[in-house]
Amino acid sequence: MLALTKKTDYALIALSELARREAEVLSVRELSERHRMPLPLLTNILKNLTRAGIVVSVRGVLGGYRLARSATTINLHELIAAVEGPFQFVRCATDSATTTGVACELETSCPIRLPAHRIRDRLRRLLEEVTLAEIVDHSPQSGVPLVSKPLPVQLRPIQLTTAKG
Q: Which residues have C-beta within 8 Å of that of residue 75, sequence separation ≥ 6?
């Protein structure tokens, strides 16, 4: 099953807080204590986000972190790549597999290689479309419901039959 790691969860929580309070510089300790995240892990996450140009580190007594740019320009794909490394669906369908050569011994005969690459590309495009601003705008703290419009669901009538014995 595909799931975000704790590192990505913590990055999203920290970035959401920074986006909500964009005029402020927040210390890693404040973020850690406020959201009960391990300080050493959050420190490393924020360093990775700084290297990726997603947040800016401000030095000094009143230092901390703030977003490097608008939340509308930060997408989930770049956030995940900054924290976790290249996006991976299956071993042979990673962003780095094409640059490093064969990533799997089955690659030359694998029947799912091309479909896996297409799925990876579709997932990547989806992640690139979702911005931090959307996540912040739809969080419970913002007062906006997570699902702001009904999902397209087709309901089919169900026929009930009784068993005659």
A: 127, 128, 129, 130, 131, 132
Q: Is 43 exposed, middle or buried (0-12, 13-18, 19+ CB in 10 A)?
A: middle
Residue with tokens 């030359």: 108
Residue located via tokens 């169900």:
158
User: How many CB atoms are closer than 10 A to CB 140?
Assistant: 8
Prediction pTM value: 0.73
Count, residues in the chain: 165
If phi > 0 it is left, if psi is from -120 to 50 it is alpha, else beta; for residue 132 that is alpha
Helix (H, G, I), strand (E, B) or coil at 120: helix
In tens digits, what is the pLDDT along the chain, a chain of 165 residues? 567 889 999 999 999 999 999 889 999 999 999 999 999 999 999 999 999 999 999 998 889 999 999 999 999 999 999 999 887 777 666 655 444 555 677 777 788 888 888 988 999 999 999 999 999 886 555 444 433 444 444 445 545 555 554
Distance CA 90, CA 92 (A): 6
